[in-house]
């Protein structure tokens, strides 16, 4: 059975991201190889991966070779560095600026969970007052996590350079102290 994964901000081929984000790699080749390895350790060929932007900063030819080594069906949410990725558009199931993903999940009241996917962090998003999740990238772990908000940075810099499964995302959201804004307090 296929699984759903989320990730962001790989910056394949971008040597300066090692310094900017203090990544523990000696060079861009080592970084790319470890990112590919960690992706494929978790993602199987039949799985779906929602990548929330900034796939790579290299030539489209080099990026295409990397993308062809990654398992899964990849859906891309545009980040602010997608020129090369857009040249490799045939490797992606689709490329969009924003997406609302509905996942069937009987643990939720309506039997499904809505997840808003966007490269950038938002303070409010569609149906956030109903418990909709929001996943974002871009910040490379520099934004403080809000324990009262059902959102977090899905970028690789925050998750030991691995994508996270839907189950892992849900487990993180369960640790949050979010309360519906319209919930009446017991008196």
Automatic annotation (TrEMBL):
The lineage of its organism: Bacteria, Pseudomonadati, Bacteroidota, Cytophagia, Cytophagales. It comes from Flammeovirga aprica JL-4. Signal peptide: none annotated. Gene3D superfamilies: 3.60.21.10. It comes from the Bacteria. Pfam families: Metallophos_2. InterPro entries: Calcineurin-like_PHP_lpxH (IPR024654), Metallo-depent_PP-like (IPR029052). Belongs to the metallophosphoesterase superfamily. YfcE family. This is Phosphoesterase. Residues 27-142 form the Calcineurin-like phosphoesterase domain.
């Amino acid at each position: 059975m296929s699984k759903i994964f989320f990730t962001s901000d790989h910056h394949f081929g971008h040597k300066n991201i090692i310094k900017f984000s203090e990544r523990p790699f000696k060079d861009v080749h080592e970084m790319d190889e470890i990112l590919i390895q960690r992706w494929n350790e978790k993602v199987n060929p039949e799985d779906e991966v929602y990548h929330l932007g900034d796939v790579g900063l290299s030539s489209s030819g080099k990026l295409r070779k990397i993308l062809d080594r990654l398992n899964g069906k990849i859906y891309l949410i545009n980040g602010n560095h997608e020129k090369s990725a857009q040249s490799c558009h045939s490797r992606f199931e689709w490329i969009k600026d924003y997406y609302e993903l509905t996942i069937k999940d009987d643990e939720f009241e309506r039997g499904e969970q809505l997840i808003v996917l966007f490269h950038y962090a938002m303070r409010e998003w569609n149906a956030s007052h109903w418990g909709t999740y929001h996943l974002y990238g871009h910040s490379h772990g520099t934004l403080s996590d809000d324990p009262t908000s059902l959102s977090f940075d899905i970028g690789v810099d925050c998750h030991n350079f691995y994508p996270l499964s839907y189950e892992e995302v849900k487990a993180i959201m369960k640790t949050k102290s979010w309360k519906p804004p319209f919930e009446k307090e017991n008196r």
